[in-house]
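S1.2 Input.
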Amino acid sequence: MNLRRAVRYPLHLPVIFRWTGDCQDSEQGAGFSRDVGTGGAYILSEPGSCPPLNTPVSLQMFLPSLEGTTRGIRVEVEGVVTRVTGSLESSGFAVVADLRFDPADSRDPGTR
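S1.3 Output.
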């Protein structure tokens, strides 16, 4: 039984995520989306790098440029972490959010 309110699509996109830590410090991590939909996303990341449960988080996902264009699309997401999973080999977290789309350079997100 699927309890999701929106369909999610299996998209493997680079993601940068940011949140405010316990000491009010800005925290940042990177990973890849496992699936994305209009109601949220699941992000795969390095073990120990996930934001805590119930934390507001900002995501930037980078869609590749389309054939014949030089610009990709940056998808910006503000949401809340609703689930965190992890092991020594892999970890990830689910975010409930609304999506908005902005043009972006097709440069690698790590070079910004």
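S1.4 Remarks. The chain has one domain: 8-107.
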